[in-house]
């Protein structure tokens, strides 16, 4: 049996990619109650409780980074669903917590 590993990226490499001339699309799939009033600047929020095949198929086809709170089940599910629909998606290891600790630019959306 082959053990499949979803494509992923470290928070440090994600921030470096976001600071390039052609940054990837950044998708925040934190649950609504976990979002609070702050997020990574430029991220598109998709409510993971309503994420379905139709939304995943509408995601941009280019490089896409997906994060949840800690980079576990929620972002990995979203990443897998996006990849099923041809999106070049990776999930961020450590999620929002790692991005914030690494110095990602934040924005207040309250």
Automatic annotation (TrEMBL):
Q: Cite the SMART domains for this sequence.
A: RHOD (SM00450)
Q: Sorted alphabetically, which InterPro entries does this protein's record hold?
A: Rhodanese-like_dom (IPR001763), Rhodanese-like_dom_sf (IPR036873)
Q: What does the UniProt keyword field contain?
A: Transferase
SUPFAM superfamilies, alphabetized: Rhodanese/Cell cycle control phosphatase (SSF52821)
| An MF annotation (GO) of this entry | transferase activity
Q: Per the database record, which ranges form the Rhodanese domain?
A: 20-108
Secreted recorded as keyword: no
Recorded hits in Pfam families, A to Z, give: Rhodanese
Q: What is this protein called?
A: Rhodanese-related sulfurtransferase
- Species of the source: Pontivivens marinum
């Amino acid at each position: 049996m082959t053990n499949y590993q979803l494509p992923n990226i470290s928070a440090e490499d994600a921030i470096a990619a976001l600071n390039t001339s052609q940054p990837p699309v950044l998708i925040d799939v934190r649950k609504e109650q976990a979002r609070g009033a702050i997020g990574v600047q430029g991220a598109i929020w998709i409510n993971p409780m309503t994420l379905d095949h139709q939304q995943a198929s509408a995601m941009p086809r280019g490089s896409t980074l997906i994060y949840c709170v800690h980079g576990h089940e929620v972002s990995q599910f979203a990443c897998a669903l996006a990849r099923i629909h041809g999106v070049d998606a990776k999930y961020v290891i450590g999620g929002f917590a790692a991005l914030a600790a690494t110095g990602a630019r934040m924005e207040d959306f309250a």
